[in-house]
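In this supplementary section we document a worked example of the pipeline. Step one takes a protein sequence of length 509 as its only input; no multiple sequence alignment statistics are reported here. Step two produces a three-dimensional model, which step three serialises into structure tokens for compact storage. The input and output of this example are shown verbatim.
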Amino acid sequence: MNHETKPNSIFKVIGASSLGTLIEWYDFYIFGSLATIIGAQLFPADAGASALINTLAIFAAGFIVRPFGALVFGRLGDLIGRKYTFLLTLVLMGGSTFLIGLIPSYSSIGYFAPILVLILRLVQGLALGGEYGGAATYVAEHAPKGKRGFFTSWIQTTATLGLFLSLGIIVLSKNIIGAEAFADWGWRIPFLLSILLVGVSIYIRLKMHESPMFTKLKTEGNISKNPLKESFSKKGNFKMVLLALFGATMGQGVIWYTGQFYAQSFIENTCKIDFNDSRYILLWGIAFATPFFVVFGAWSDKVGRKWIMLTGMLLGIIFYRPIYQMFLDKSDVSKTEVSAIASTAAPVITRVPLHDKGDSLITTSTKISLLSGASYNKVLVDTVYADASKTIGHSAAIYKDKILETSTFWIFVGLVFFQILLVTMVYGPIAAFLVELFPTKIRYTSMSLPYHVGNGVFGGLVPFVATLIASFAGSTPLSGLWYPIGIAALSFIIGAVYLSNKKDENVND
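The serialised model returned by step three reads:
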């Protein structure tokens, strides 16, 4: 019986699978892209930096439950089929994203706001845990021999394109309704829009057929009775699960989330680049680098998967600190010469009462434009006490909302592009690599777990853990990078020693 798929139908398979997966990633990443604004909505106004850290913790919670989603939906996928399982995950993801857009803010319902968002975020994580393994397995089981890396690499573009779509809709919404309205209520638009995107994807997926390999297994009565037991109780298969996790997906995960999410968070919150500019930098970097997912996926069909992925990890280990040091140096305006200033706007002064003792915070914000075309706001915050005997408290100057001069902007784009290029090296071949490790009847379950523990937990925690480390006393802005560098180094060593570079041409077993 011939289970090869005709060239014209494989592209339909890729298109239908990729669109749904892209929308799930879009739903999942809106939250991280709006962490600063959402933090201000979910927590008290005087929460300060802890609002961002708490919001990143809620963002990270979605990653932590992804392995559980992988087990639940992976088992379903091996029992009832790939098609209906990732239809279910799509509905759960779209529904929970839509509901996040309807949650009242902290000012309306207090701490119920972050609790409700946390619950919906957990549902998102469970759904995504079931989605990716199904989509990658579905495409791989349709792909012809010798081109599995090329065809599954299209699925690998969806995570980055989902991030690209979320950033694009956020910037577009903000530019249309204005910054103030967007921070107040407009941030809900990208969440609510999800219901339309998911509806389109469900319609397309309903027209898809079941994977030919799974159909063959089902026809012959060879479906696994207990995929979880078969995946993890057999020594040989469990060894492959551990090797996939510690030698590949763990390192791949931290490279992915450092190159895209931590880069955005660092540029916006540490370098304090303007909201729109920080997203434009990511958008350009993603646009230039995305084709390389397919390039490295196809190349892995010729030279093997292992060394392409490990080279991406090694380059991240070597270059992360110089890259982020350059971000800091190029955005530092604290030593701007007076001769470089083109104009200084009239200062905007606001006064906010503190508690009921009569103390207050006075914020003075002054926009400064430079001859180079760059600009920034210089912010001074003074604490004035009702008790006149107390000395006025002065904070250090904060330089924020920085607009970069054109040449510096493109240097930032180049640095982000390089990081995403590393992402394409570790991520482009990995679906084919995982599919080839496991047999058809337990493939969905077996490949989903190491992927979501490695990518979701180790990788997804990068923004939270790195930001937390950088907030410790005595740390520097670059201290947080030791987390992804350490994890990538460990994964590189394990992968180099224990992984095989051999491609499995036959996945019909």
